[in-house]
Amino acid sequence: MRIGQLAQSVGVDTQTIRFYERQGLLPPPDRQENGYRVYTEKHGEGLAFIRRCRILGLSLAEIHELQSYQDDPHQPCTAVNALLDDHISHVRSQITALQALEKQLVSLRASCNDDREVEACGVLAGISEGNMHQQ
Amino acid sequence: MRIGQLAQSVGVDTQTIRFYERQGLLPPPDRQENGYRVYTEKHGEGLAFIRRCRILGLSLAEIHELQSYQDDPHQPCTAVNALLDDHISHVRSQITALQALEKQLVSLRASCNDDREVEACGVLAGISEGNMHQQ
DNA sequence: TTAAAACTATATAGTAGCTATAAGGTCAAT
DNA sequence: ATTGACCTTATAGCTACTATATAGTTTTAA
Questions:
Q1: Which residues are bridge partners to B76 per DSSP?
Q2: Which end of chain A is more exposed for a tag (fewer CB within 10 A), N or C?
Q3: How many other CB atoms are there within 10 angstroms of residue B87's CB atom?
């Protein structure tokens, strides 16, 4: 299996595969005589794993960490669960921050309507005057 | 007022101020004979405006756009409001996406406890097997 | 058979918004 | 005279790719 086929089967760009290889997330595959990379089923699974992790919002560093656990299958999986717990709290704090931001933006937006000149715009005035509530 | 004082008064790094200047968000200030930048009150207001916009999550491009409106104060402020509306929907869709992600992560986490080996870890299995629900 | 299309390779730069580092010039105080 | 705090520019680093340039290889079609 060459890089293009692997890419298509997982739904990523060939560049991304080479990028993961350089980052140490995918093991360097064997090469044909002409230098083309040759991939196996294992590579496909590894790549799919990376992609699913990315969809879950994990960073490449976190994925690397998960891979290191996979390489040591008889350890307790405490660290895996802890990584996920950390990620969940990270996502939750992002949600909280964005909800606060949304409130702030909505209240700013309410301070204007479309029938004014820029000079009298409530939105711009609100930002300029800095009457922004914390967090 | 020199760059260090401006930076301290607004609470940013001096590097950030030079960066905004290069990006065209802050007008190039006058220089002393020795080349040091000299800032006025206006620069302070401009910088504070940028920072408040950043806190609201606006991109530098959006800030640039707002500044272009400020330079034309007798236009109607429709575009300002539209920019904010767009930003609000952007924030809302981020929230929605993160909430879906949180659900997914929590359900993944529920598939394991700490008393297993990595080999049997429900979390890793969940990711590897790809039984991930869309969005 | 040959020429074009489609694939592969590497290296490099760009994206966003800074932050950090290096290497140097300036200024006030000791 | 030298230390320290400030200023200058230029450059690289961060994340996770994506795009571009340039070149070699394979496959397909005429």
A1: A117
A2: C
A3: 21
Q: How long is the CA A47 to C1' D24 vector, in angstroms? A: 27
Phi-psi region of B11 (alpha: psi -120 to 50; beta: other; left: phi over 0): left
- The neighbour count for residue B51, using CB atoms within 10 Å, is 18
Please name the nucleotide lying closest to B36, CA to C1'.
D7
Nearest CA among A73, A79, A75, A64 for reference residue A21: A64
Instruction: Supply A125's token pair.
Output: 């005035």
Phi/psi for A11 (5° steps) reads: 85, 40
A80–B118: do the CB atoms touch at under 8 Å?
Answer: yes
Q: Pull the structure tokens for residue A8.
A: 């298509």
* pLDDT tens for each residue of chain B, 135 residues long: 999 999 999 999 999 999 999 999 999 999 999 999 999 999 999 999 999 999 999 999 999 999 999 999 999 999 999 999 999 999 999 999 999 999 999 999 999 988 899 999 999 999 998 776 544
Could you count the other beta carbons within 10 Å of the beta carbon of residue A121? 28
Task: Give the Å distances, CA to CA, from A126 to A60, A107, A111, A112, A121.
Answer: 39, 10, 8, 9, 8
Can you tell me which residue has the tokens 């929605």? B96
Of A75, A105, A123, the CB nearest to B117: A75
A55 CB-to-strand D distance under 7 Å: no
**Cβ(B37)–Cβ(B31) under 8 Å?**
yes
Gyration radius (Cα) of chain A, Å: 24
Query: A98, B94: Cβ pair inside 8 Å?
Result: yes
Q: Check residue B103 and report its DSSP letter.
A: H
Q: How many C-beta atoms lie closer than 10 Å to residue A129's C-beta?
A: 11
Structural tokens at position B48: 């504070």
